[in-house]
Write a structure and sequence with these properties.
The complex is a heterodimer of chains A (about 210) and B (about 270).
Chain A: H1 14-46, H2 49-58, H3 64-87, H4 91-114, E1 119-120, E2 128-129, H5 137-156, H6 164-168, H7 181-193
Antiparallel strand pairs in A: 1-2
Chain B: H1 4-9, H2 12-57, H3 64-70, E1 86-88, E2 96-102, H4 106-124, E3 129-135, H5 138-142, H6 146-159, H7 163-172, H8 185-192, H9 201-208, H10 213-224, E4 227-228, E5 231-232, E6 238-241, E7 244-246, E8 249-250, E9 254-255, H11 258-269
Parallel strand pairs in B: 2-3
Antiparallel strand pairs in B: 1-3, 2-6, 4-5, 6-7, 8-9
Classes of the chains: A mainly alpha (about 210), B alpha+beta (about 270).
Chain lengths: ~210, ~270
């Protein structure tokens, strides 16, 4: 046997290849992590709708008539986001909505802090007015910012392992694609290899290719 | 569209591939739209379920207060001319200091502690009379019934001619803002026991049956649209006389001193 150069032309772009391999796994972790956060937050609040409404009232932002509908809907909305994240469908949209909701929460806490209200954020159940020395606004905001990072990762790299998206859209998003693939994407590749011998959701060939 | 020249350069294979790419892109966009629609639909449905569950778990439509409001309207005796305020003072013709308070409001308690005696002295001396407007909006803000029930009990005390003493007793025994203790009618009756000669079968029945609920509601409604002069009343405690607001709290410092309040009142009634 003679040693031959690898036929794989992308071997030179080592770091890019490894990102391509790792990103969907990091995405999976971010997706499930964010799902767990929403599920936990939603569950704790859904157990006591009145407490949830009470927590919303504490922010003193919404008119009285809207406090209860919002307080009742929020926990279920969070559970819904958790479900969609676990399934991994419409990941970029769901992550964007998660980020939006987190922004609303951060804004709510920030305005309570700025106005000198003394409330518990009620992020994971509880909530409402507390003693002025029992507030934890900074911690609450930092925690939400941490969750925000998970959402931002998923917005930037929505393709994750073990997701409905990967099953529904076998072709890869641009950031996981080889640059030189671009041109021949719809010609040689489709004709000779197709998607059949690939793992859904990735561009890795299943085995060595014989030409 | 491109020119004939460039069109001619394309091979049939390229055109076919392009057409296929276009078709696939269109297909993909359609799938994306369907999925986005499904995601949004799931969230909307789930949120509606939440509202329905929340509404059914809490029966806002029922309760002693709603029942009491359904009964014929009844107000305490000897109210001010507007049928809202409870007047306190020795001189019925003195200018009236309108005082908006809620029995669950902690700052009202602070104001009563620090400035209440001064105001009461002026009322006793006949310089002013105090017109207490008992709001009950904190039940809506904090949840519960304590503001309404305490206001009703204070109205019952007015029927017995002991509003001022009972008013002071309620504030002196105000529970923590988060503790809806005033919603317990037996607690309100216990506190009434501290005012000599207040408890009677009539008074107890009035407190228990929420007999002046209609009046409490009317005072609260009026409070929501109240103005002192041209300034809308936005909360409790708020005081005004002759259309001029009396600053009970000095911005950036805290409660006004009794002397400051007395001076403001005297300037306003000159």
């Amino acid at each position: 046997m003679t040693a031959t150069a690898t036929p794989n032309g992308t071997a030179s772009a080592g770091s890019l290849t490894s990102l391509r391999k790792v990103a969907p796994w990091i995405g999976l972790a971010a997706r499930l992590g964010l799902a767990f956060v929403w599920a936990f937050a939603g569950w704790e609040k859904a157990l006591d709708p009145d407490q949830a409404a009470y927590a919303v009232r504490g922010y003193d932002v919404l008119p009285d008539g809207l406090v209860e509908p919002v307080g009742y809907a929020l926990p279920y909305l969070e559970l819904g986001l958790a479900l969609l994240l676990v399934v991994g469908i419409g990941t970029r949209l769901v992550a964007s909505l998660s980020a939006l909701l987190l922004l609303v929460f951060i804004a709510g806490i920030a305005q309570a802090w700025a106005r000198g209200l003394a409330i518990d954020c009620g992020c994971f159940g509880g909530g409402g007015p507390v003693e002025p020395d029992k507030t934890a606004y900074l911690e609450e905001i930092l925690r939400d910012c941490g969750f925000m990072l998970l959402a931002i990762w998923l917005i930037l790299f929505p393709r994750t392992r073990l997701s409905a998206d990967a099953w529904l859209f076998p072709e890869e998003p641009p950031y996981l694609r080889d640059q030189d693939d671009e041109d021949e994407r719809w010609t040689d590749e489709d004709e000779y290899r197709g998607d059949a011998n690939r793992n859904p959701g990735t561009r890795e060939p299943k085995g060595p290719e014989i030409t | 569209m491109s020119s004939k020249n460039s069109e001619g350069k394309r091979t049939a294979r390229e055109r076919m591939a392009q057409e296929r790419a276009r078709q696939q892109a269109l297909d993909k966009r359609r799938r994306v739209m369907v999925i986005a629609g499904a995601v949004v639909a799931v969230l909307v449905v789930v949120a509606i379920i939440g509202v329905v569950v929340g509404m059914s778990k809490t029966n806002k439509k029922k309760g002693p207060w709603k029942d009491a409001l359904a009964k014929p309207f009844s107000a305490p005796a000897n109210l001010s001319a507007d049928g809202l305020g409870v007047p306190v003072g020795s001189n019925p013709n003195a200018p009236s200091l309108i005082m908006y308070e809620d029995f669950r409001c902690p700052i009202c308690h602070e104001v009563e502690k620090a400035l209440g005696p001064t105001l009461r002295q002026m009322a006793d001396a006949g310089t002013i009379k105090i017109d207490y407007h008992i709001a009950s909006f904190l039940d809506g803000k904090l949840g519960g019934n304590g503001s309404k029930y305490a206001a009703n009990a204070a109205g019952c005390a007015q029927n017995a001619g002991k509003f001022a003493q009972y008013h002071d007793t309620l504030f002196a025994n105000q529970p923590d803002e988060l503790d809806d203790k005033f919603a317990s009618r037996s607690y309100l009756l216990d506190l009434a026991g501290k005012v000599d000669g207040l408890r009677s079968p009539t008074f107890d029945a009035c407190v228990n049956d929420l007999s002046v609920a209609g009046w409490v509601n009317k005072v609260e409604d009026a409070f929501q649209n109240a103005k002192i002069g041209d300034t809308p009343v936005t909360g409790t405690p708020t005081a005004g006389i002759n259309g001029k607001t009396i600053d009970l709290i000095v911005k950036g410092r805290g409660l006004a001193t009794p002397d400051e309040v007395r001076a403001q009142i005297q300037a306003a009634i000159k």
